[in-house]
Structures are given as structure tokens and as C-alpha cells.
Amino acid sequence: MQQNFYILRQGNWNTFQPWEIAKLKNLSLIASMTNDIDWQHELCSRIEKIEG
């Protein structure tokens, strides 16, 4: 995780972006499996914002 913060500080968002999207998609799956609709919507919104 420390390495990811270093990447962001260096301004290299394109390197960090795929990792962040994968993390959010995995969390969205967990939200779906636990029927946490609000959390899932929040995560999907964050994914859409990153993917543009």
C-alpha cells in the first residue's frame, strides 16, 4: 500500500488506476454478496468516476 501512495505522489495516476479499479470491483462483489446496496452503489459510482 505504501508503494501506491508513492505512485500517486509522483503524479503517475495511470499506473495506480488499474489497481484501484480492481480493488473497487472486488469490494463491489463483497457488497453484492452481503446485500449492502448502498455500499455497492457508492463503489460503482467511484468506479464510473475513475473509468470516465
Main features:
52 residues; mainly alpha; elongated; DUF7667
Describe the structure.
This protein has helices at 2-9, 13-33, 37-51. It is mostly helical and 52 residues long. It has a domain at 18-51. Helix 2 packs antiparallel against helix 3 (37-51).
Question: How is the topology of this model organized?
Answer:
Elements: H1 2-9, H2 13-33, H3 37-51
Helix pairs in contact: 2-3
Q: What general form does the structure show? A: elongated
Summarize model confidence as the mean pLDDT: 83
Give me the count of strands: 0
Report strand %. Answer: under 5%
- How many helices? 3
Poorly predicted ranges: none
Helicity level: over 70%
How much is the radius of gyration in Å?
Answer: 12 Å
* Biggest β-sheet strands, sense, barrel: none
| Gap between N and C termini | 24 Å
